[in-house]
Amino acid sequence: MARNTPLAPMIGPDAVASRAAVRSPKTAELVAGTLRRMVVEGQLQDGDFLPNEAELMAHFGVSRPTLREAVRVLESERLVEVRRGSRTGARVRVPGPEVVARPAGLLLELSGATIADLLTAKSGIEPMAARLLAESGTAAAFDELEQMLEVLVADGHQSARLAEATGAFHLRVVQLSGNATLAIVAGMLHEITVRHTAFVFKERRPVSKADYEKLMRSYRKLMQFLRAGDAPGAEAHWRKHLDTSRELLLTGLESVPVRDVMG
Question: HTH gntR-type domain: from which residue to which, for each copy (predicted)?
Fold first, then answer.
């Protein structure tokens, strides 16, 4: 059983080593933290350029090397984009889920996660998102999903973009639910899921016209629950839909590791 280690008894020779492990933030990190907070709070928005170096150096009271180190910190976090040789300076780039999708995919590979793990996680995320969307979704949100559905219908079951298009529909349901945490997690899993689905459709089980029409009916049924504001109905239907999809996508592939899909 884990136990907490008290800080008070840390005196004597051990205390010196302990204190050495706690360092003060560097000035560049403090500057980066202030600029990061300005992005989070909306004072600096996507597409804005940071003030020029002279202004920032005067504002923070730091040297040019310190300021540039701070900007490199933000660049490594994908919060700013710096074009070398440009006179316009650093530009704010608010990241989306794709920024963490690739590292998350790598972490899943390293952890030995399987596609079954991934699809089970989606089954925990998306039904709740459907409930939230039914409770508080707007007409504009429902119209957007209907338009995506119309494109799916028009493309047909032989579309080369079927996996991508259905994956985008699922992701948008979560994004429109209004829950930022669910949307970010779904965005992280999106790329891996689409690749697996495309592999199944192309290599193992091409989608028949009958299965495709059944899929479209299920999507339309979800839209009915959403527009009716039936949160329990939307959640239950989407959970059943995902359970059925998971069974179809996993048959014979239950233990396929994520790395075999990511390539």
Answer: 25-95
Helices 64-76, 53-60: axis angle to 10 degrees equals 100
Q: In 72-159, at which residue ranges do the beta strands (DSSP E only) sit?
A: 80-82, 90-92
Neighbours of 232 (CB within 10 A): 11
Range of the domain at 74: 25-92
Using only C-alpha atoms, the chain has a radius of gyration, in whole angstroms, of: 24
What tens digit of pLDDT does each residue of 91-124 get? 998 877 667 767 777 788 788 888 888 888 999 9
Are 70 and 138 within one domain? no
121 lies in some domain: yes
To 5 degrees, how large is the angle CA 199–CA 205–CA 209? 115
Per-residue pLDDT tens for 230-259?
999 999 999 999 998 888 777 777 677 776
Q: How far apart are CA 21 and CA 117, in angstroms?
A: 38
